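Re-run with default settings, no changes from the original entry. Doing this only to confirm the output is reproducible before filing.
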Amino acid sequence: MFPKRLRQMLVIILLIIIAGTIGFKLTGSENISILDALFMTAITISTVGYGDYAGIDKSPAGKIFTIIFIFLGAGVIAYLFTTLAAYIVEGELKEVFRRRSMEKRIEKMKDHYIVCGIGMVGLYIVNELYQTRRPQVAIDLHENKLEILQMHNINIDLIVGDSTENEILEKANVSKAKGLFATTNSDNDNIVIVLTAKQINPSLKIVSRCNDTKNLDKLKRAGADAVVALNYIGGLRMASEMVRPNVTSFLDKMLRDKESPLRVDEVQIPKESPYVGKRVCDIDFRSMGNALLVALRRSDGHWIYNPLPDTILERDMNMILLATVEEREILERLVAPINKTA
């Protein structure tokens, strides 16, 4: 789509051509045709000047009209091409600088998330990551998805390309990423994305979308750590709305209400954390605000719900809590290894 300024210039050019054709028809010889008048207009504004095809050499009015028309028409045409050239050059330069800046930012990223496919599902994912201040990179085949992200006030980097290709995933710095979401509309593409990403970064955590439940096992065998079947989840949600509406309302308020700062979140206790071996009560949750510890998950998968104050904290243990983004970040810094916080 041309910008408004260029559209206005094109309209002016059209008006000049029409005015020139009518002017040469009226001021030229009696037997001049519309085609001759149009041809005279074209060679005049283009400054080619093959000769007098309108018979104005014997018409004072025709000569005066031609003089005015030359300055007006040729000037406008020259301005149009200058504006068009500037638009193309500036647009290309801006795009080059934007991509280079983006590539430099992504090269410096680590422990970030990659979202492959910005459809409706992908859009919700990038929005949640953005709202909770997680670093991320998006990948999609269509460049217009950048405008869609900006419309939703989501300011993240978007790589335009095919997520199934090694080169595109490497541009997203997948080797240093913490997690990847395969959210395209095609289960086959998601399988290829999972396989490709796992080959580049075997430790990468991958969550994949599944459109057909018969592909669940295929995605898991390809390397996906978790597979979400949209139809299955949708069915459970509808059942929950019927039998436990207040629970779903509570979760929606935290996950979907933009004005609600609370999230059900998690923080992992690193191996070298100063809190490994200490008790839950040694962490002063109240000093952070209203953070509420809901459960603990050990590295072997065992869950401890509503943990007691004297429960021992272990390395690689995950704390499940109700907290704001700021409270989660405070807790992450608190349990981080001392050499990383220094």
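DSSP finds twelve helices and ten strands in the chain. The two ends are 51 Å apart (CA to CA).
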